[in-house]
Specification:
Layout lengths: L1 E4 L4 H14 L3 E4 L10 E4 L6 H7 L5 E4 L5 H6 L4 H8 L6 H4 E5 L2 E3 L11 H9 L8 H8 L5 H12 L5 H5 L6 E5 L17 H10 L24 E5 L7 H12 L6 E6 L6 H7 L5 E6 L5 H6 L5 H14 L1 E8 L7 H11 L5 E5 L14 H11 L3 H5 L1 H16 L4 H18 L3 H4 L10
Parallel strand pairs: 1-3, 1-4, 2-3, 5-7, 7-8, 8-9, 9-10, 10-11, 11-12
Antiparallel strand pairs: 5-6
């Protein structure tokens, strides 16, 4: 398949037709997010497709042809520059070592996937430039080895575009962070079953009461936003806890408004359950905001997994956020929702077809891992339904995730010890919250396992 990137004009359309004619291939016209791709030639532009949607379509069998006046952002993410060519031969390099910083209280990291504490960043940079494996980056290494989406590649593409980098030197010469990741402590309004005390003060209280944790953490305060240089920041990602209910974050938003610095990319990871008037009034001033909404279940399943978030209220809040900025969705796959993915994905396919949905996997604690679901037959049925979704046909990343899930379910042998730990843990939460697994996820009940 050939994708011709142009400017959306008839001139570019004609040029793409000429490419098809010269290659003796069929011309299918405009490529957008809803296109069911076939082997042939397409024409697209920034008016037809977003950079992320184009990335999801591109694979090793896709050839990119850059036409006159093609959008630079689409060119960058399509791999048509020296940085992405460099990364094809260097599996260690990541722009975040030069451009980014994550602050979580006193801890400083490059990204949330980093394994362990980096004692010497200069050594890490040298290893990356020389293509040597970096032990801290194990998550991305494993993702790429299994054919899944790699944050290393995706983030480098995004950062290269953000700083208008044309080659590796443009990245490695950055003298200060331009990309910030700030964590706002553990103040939260939800008690998600796959979460932990350090990310929700409500879970902290519950776990202490139930004896799951011996010592209560209490309220972990937010990182001070003073670490963000408002003169140089190009992107700020904020996660919690729950940022929308954190006073330090609200104070920072007010400071940005006061200093008339509201044009940088602001990404907010949120459960979108509580949208206060103060938060909404402040966020209206920001011209480049993206909400990353975590949604792990449809209707009653959402309430059970992300207690006490209700579906109707969340759906209304998502509509409101969609009017205030860009929006995308994050789905954490665990033993709870692996058997009921279809309704969740189908909803976002239909209601928000042009928005990105990202899949991540819960692997800690290990008894919540999706691969140890006891009802393989039911999960495999769910997978087959997901394969009928439009996104499975058109979204390469989504298709790889579904295929990865299927392969894992087919090959993993049930660990009964791990499953018993899951039931013991879940029974404690059900008793504490006055809920029953059988009322929400009967496929997980022992008596219903096929």
């Amino acid at each position: 398949m050939i994708i011709c990137i142009g400017d959306g004009s008839s001139t570019s359309d004609i040029a793409a037709q000429e490419v098809a004619q010269n290659r003796s291939m069929k011309y299918y016209g405009v490529l957008d997010a809803s296109t069911v791709c076939k082997d042939g030639v397409y024409h697209t532009s920034k008016y037809d497709i977003s950079p992320q949607q184009l990335v999801d379509i591109i694979n090793k069998d896709v050839e990119i042809v850059v036409l006159t006046n093609a959008d630079s952002e689409l060119i960058a993410v399509s791999g048509q520059n020296s940085i992405l060519e460099y990364m094809k031969t260097n599996s260690s390099f990541c722009a975040m070592a030069w451009t980014s910083t994550l602050r979580d209280q006193t801890q400083i990291r490059l990204c949330c996937y980093q394994k362990g504490h980096i004692s010497n960043l200069d050594n890490v940079k040298l290893d990356m430039l020389q293509g040597r494996p970096v032990s801290y980056c194990e998550y991305c290494t494993k993702a790429e080895q299994s054919g899944r989406r790699s944050p290393r590649i995706q983030r480098t593409k995004e950062l290269a575009e953000m700083i208008s980098a044309n080659d590796i030197d443009d990245i490695t010469s950055i003298p200060y962070p331009v990309d910030y990741d700030i964590r706002t402590g553990n103040r939260c309004n939800a008690m998600c079953r796959m979460c932990c005390a350090s990310d929700s003060h409500l879970i902290d209280r519950e776990y202490s009461k139930l004896g799951i944790e011996k010592t209560a953490l209490g309220i972990i305060p937010s990182t001070e936003f003073d670490v963000v240089n408002l003169q140089t920041v190009k992107k700020l990602y904020v996660a919690g806890g729950e940022p929308t209910v954190t006073q330090e974050f609200l104070n920072f938003l007010a400071k940005c408004v006061q200093q008339n610095r509201t044009d940088f990319l602001l990404q907010i990871n949120t459960n979108a359950f509580v949208l206060s008037k103060k938060f909404l009034d402040l966020i209206k001033h920001f011209s480049n905001v993206q909400f990353i909404v975590s949604v792990d279940g449809f209707e009653d399943a959402l309430y059970y997994i992300r207690y006490p978030i209700t579906w109707d209220k969340l759906a209304k809040n998502i509509e409101q956020l969609n009017e205030l900025g860009d929006i995308c969705f994050n789905h954490s796959i665990s033993i709870y929702n692996i058997g009921r993915m279809y309704n969740l994905f189908d909803f976002f396919n239909k209601e928000y077809p042009t928005k990105t949905s990202l899949i991540c996997y819960v692997d800690h604690p290990s008894y919540l891992w999706f691969g140890n679901h006891p009802n393989k037959y039911q999960v495999l049925q769910e997978i087959e339904k997901c394969k009928k979704l439009q996104s499975y046909k058109t979204n390469t990343s989504f298709r790889k995730d579904i295929d990865h899930i299927k392969q894992t379910i087919l090959t993993h042998k049930l660990d009964q010890v791990l499953l018993d730990k899951f039931y013991a843990f879940n029974d404690l939460l059900d008793k504490s919250r006055n809920l029953k697994l059988a009322d929400y996820m009967p496929e997980l009940v022992k008596e219903n396992i096929q």
